Amino acid sequence: MTEPMFDRIALVGIGLIGSSLARVIRREGLARHIAISTRSPQTLKRAEELGLGDSYSTDAKEAVRGADLVIVSVPVGSSGAVAEEIAPALRPGAILTDVGSTKGSVIAQMQPHVPADVHFIPGHPLAGTEKSGPDAGFADLFQNRWCIFTPLPDTDPAALEKLSAFWRACGSNIDTMDAAHHDKVLAIVSHLPHIIAYNIVGTADDLEAVTESEVIKYSASGFRDFTRLAASDPTMWRDVCLHNKDAILEMLARFSEDLAFLQRAIRWGDGDKLFDLFTRTRAVRRSIIEAGQEVDVPDFGRQVVAHPEKS
Amino acid sequence: MTEPMFDRIALVGIGLIGSSLARVIRREGLARHIAISTRSPQTLKRAEELGLGDSYSTDAKEAVRGADLVIVSVPVGSSGAVAEEIAPALRPGAILTDVGSTKGSVIAQMQPHVPADVHFIPGHPLAGTEKSGPDAGFADLFQNRWCIFTPLPDTDPAALEKLSAFWRACGSNIDTMDAAHHDKVLAIVSHLPHIIAYNIVGTADDLEAVTESEVIKYSASGFRDFTRLAASDPTMWRDVCLHNKDAILEMLARFSEDLAFLQRAIRWGDGDKLFDLFTRTRAVRRSIIEAGQEVDVPDFGRQVVAHPEKS
Q1: CA-closest candidate to residue A50, choices A23, A82, A17
Q2: Which of A49-63, B42-56, B83-97, B199-213 is predicted least confidently?
Q3: Contacts of B197 in chain A (CB under 8 A)
Q4: Considering only CB atoms, which chain A residues are within 8 Å of B175?
Q5: Distance between CA B257 and CA A94 in Å, rounded?
Q6: Residue of B nearest to A263 (CA)
């Protein structure tokens, strides 16, 4: 067995991402000690029942004390308060990172609290499911997914390389970019899709002419695809909306503009415009499958799951 | 072995739906003879290579001659022309049905051509995947999905019962409703989701500030869920948009109104409104899973497909 990369990794927050990290750190032997902290005593108890770590505390300071890697996995709106709380307990030379879906806001919230002798490297693993909490995590969550770092001007290259090696050991591919670009990219690939999904499920839920039971029964004809994103953690997504406002509003404006164009084509019966768009979008999915970011089976593989013997 | 339900079933159109029907009809022994017809010689040849039927013709009249069940599975914009073409060859007493996603328009197109001694029963199996063509079909496609009939005022109850028994044998559950209600229900559960998916994929494809390769690479963070619907057959969906215009425009207006409300909540930082919506929508997915219309595994079961040994 090789040396663990870190002596003590502190996981602050043990939801879907934190608990997936705990599992892959254990499986890959990336730390001698996994210290887990979360504010909720029930969640902490559950993490302990699942055996996710080596020590458990509702006090984040206690978990991060002596850690050479600290990973904050909380809703982005809480990252400032967490940074303020743990700052005095951070060990000199430690790497501090996060997993937040917005980076400009997280940097603005956390950086002022970070001691000068701690390496703060904002990060974002692009991985998740619609489930939340410590039971939802699994060691393969990051496999072949991208982890984006948005290093600060004074980020130590050696610390960045060490954190990159950690995420690669968790299965991720690594990219770096500046925080503003990250926030714009994520607004289109993640935030807008979630907001649109929440919105359409809300619209369907509000109809009078179509009953809710009809929406449920007939959902396999398309609607159910949206319900996965719309079942994501409400606190996390409220915070994302509040903390990446500008980029999200820009993408929403573009989406609405395009939708008005499409709506007009429908109203005026312009079949060629519709056919052109519907053809172009087909190619995008093929590219995603070729890039290994989607499974190459119909219906996301639901048939295989539902009828395993008939796949 | 029990008697087949029908002597000769004619399948006019052998795409995803037609070829799935061919496979389940064969597996369940529902016909003595399966006659297949499609306009494209290449598609017909492929159907023959796959052994989907007992006879093959590019002439729909030839396929339907003598059939006691005729199922038209073509884009809804072609249903009038098909009805006109096959009408003279339909056998007295035959059941004629279709699988179109819009019903008001299909009835208006087909009914004028149907001879008085033929039972025309408009139908719509709510099943499909993003794939198209005769290779894409599979016998389980209709398993536990709903098939909706929109009978006409003079529909013969015995013929309706016979057609219902056929679809139940294909695995479907049966509902009946009037065509106008069907078109409104489908506008929200199927047509709007497809249009929104096409639209967001188009918006992402058009950005200058975010490259297409970034959209592809980072798509697992939400965007890729939309690409499945946006990879559906362009001809089919062009026709749906053109043939269910009024209901679709109504649902689009509601969706846009709700989106404006959500956008305003984001702009003004109204976290409570966001949290309320994001919580409400979560419950809808649970209901769909409980109704057996969705698989109860994270990420649509992609993990199980991608890492079968680790499920």
Answers
A1: A23
A2: B199-213
A3: 222, 225, 281
A4: 217
A5: 49
A6: B249
**C-alpha–C-alpha distance, residues A100 and A109, integer Å:** 12
* Site from A206, A243, A285 to mutate, B interface, most B CB atoms within 10 angstroms: A285
> Is it the case that residue A310 has pLDDT exceeding 60?
no
Nearest CA in chain B to A223: B189
Beta strand A146-149 pairing with B6-12: unpaired
Secondary element (H or E) of residue B195: helix B192-206
pLDDT value, residue B311: 41
pTM above 0.80, yes or no: yes
Report d(CA A241, CA B260) in Å as an integer. Answer: 14
Q: How far apart are CA B148 and CA B212, in angstroms?
A: 40
Dist. CA B38–CA A40, nearest whole Å: 62
- What pLDDT was estimated at residue A303? 80
Query: Residue B286: closest CA among chain A residues belongs to which residue?
Result: A231
Residues of B in contact with A184 (CB under 8 A): 209-210
Give me the pLDDT at residue B308, please. 72
Identity of the residue in B184, B190, B275 whose CB atom sits nearest the CB atom of A223: B190
Distance CA B288, CA A230 (A): 13
User: Residue B174 forms beta bridges with which residues?
Assistant: B147
Tokens 């079968």 locate to B308
Confidence bin at B249 (pLDDT 50/70/90): very high
B10 CB-near residues (< 8 Å, 6+ apart): B35, B36, B37, B60, B63, B64, B67, B69, B70, B71
The chain B residue lying nearest A306, using CA atoms, is B295
Positive or negative CA dihedral for B288, B293, B294, B295?
A: positive
Here the ipTM equals 0.94
- Count Cβ–Cβ pairs < 8 Å, chain A vs chain B: 389
